Amino acid sequence: MKKILLWGGLTIFLMILGVGLFRSQQAQVNIGEPAPDFELLSFSGERYQLSDLRGKVVVINFWASWCESCKPEAKDLEDAYQFYLSRGDVIFLGVDYVDTEPEALAYLKEFGITYPNGPDLKTSISQAYRIRGVPETFVIDKNGTIAHLQIGPFRSLPEILSVIDPLLD
Amino acid sequence: MKRDMKTWLGIFILILLIVLSIPVVGYAQGSDPTDDDVNTVAKQLYCPVCENIPLDACGTAACEQWRGIIYDKLKEGWTEDQIKDYFVAQYGDRVLAEPPKQGFNWLVYLVPLLVFTGGGFLLYRGFNRWKESAPTTKEGKEILKKEDPSMDKYIERIENELKKRSEGSK
């Protein structure tokens, strides 16, 4: 009886340890995989559910106001958003990672960003996408599959357009 | 009757004074919190960007902003618990140095306790068995000598060596 208890306890302990290790070692969400669904509550109070945007190309940009390497791409992302705005089938969503609201709003103002942005509440979105840092950008095709993963900033507007254009009809 | 009233009034004033003298974890609205006030709250939080570094010791821009938020909230008169709740609502449970005692989090508290208790028990049992198996009586020691006479020879040599050395040093 004692042996069963001892081995049982040890097995449960090792299982918990194993699950924890597995979760920490899990790789990033990759190209070709379905994009994890999430809800983003923007700074202006609108709600965006990724699954509701099926049939549109969605650009999800993870950023933070304290992130220096996010700044060079900020204006290019806004320009890309403006470029596709009239089409209506390209949606840009900014996910503000581990940031403080006043600084985030100041950042959006500084770079003139007008597409929807909101905080990553409880870091649930960044955890679902298992990001390793910021900036990171996921481009989701019209079927809800990850078509492009950009680790680090985009270098220019043409680079952003070259990723989105092939996904449009 | 009058005396009774006076006694009750005295007790009431005494209780009031005691209650008022209990320090409340909070800060007067409008007063400027010091760095120590900010760090008291900050050391109970961890920023997910720089894991394993408490907020009060972290030098990144993100942590600096968080400390700024703590400062602002303290200035507004928020209590430590209110500030911690705010950070949990914004960034999740993982920002807390001590996870709340609920659900799976109990493992954090229980597993080390169980491991220590189990380890202690195993050690105790191991030592007891060891002690029981070691001969304590003269007869037992004799048996041990008979079982392994070579050991006796070695001990004798060591003792002789030690004797020589101690005599040589004199």
Can you offer a commentary on this structure?
The complex is a heterodimer of chains A (169) and B (170). Chain A is an alpha/beta fold and 169 residues long. Chain A has 5 helices and 7 strands; from the N terminus they run H-E-E-E-H-E-H-E-H-E-E-H. Chain A has helices at 2-25, 71-84, 101-110, 124-128, 157-164, and strands spanning 39-41, 47-49, 57-63, 90-96, 117-119, 136-140, 146-151. In chain A, strands 5-4-3-6-7 form a 5-stranded mixed beta sheet, with helices on one face. A two-stranded antiparallel ribbon of chain A has the order 1-2. Chain B is mainly alpha-helical and 170 residues long. Chain B has 3 domains: 19-100, Orthogonal Bundle (Helicase, Ruva Protein, domain 3); 101-134; 135-170. In chain B, 67% of the residues lie in helices and 0% in strands. The radius of gyration of chain B is 33 Å and the shape is elongated. In chain B, 12% of the residues are buried. The model of chain B has no long low-confidence stretch (mean pLDDT 82). Chain A binds chain B through residues 9, 13, 16, 64-66, 98-100, 103, 119, 121-124, and chain B through 47-49, 60-62, 64-66, 68-69, 88-94, 107, 111, 114-115, 118.
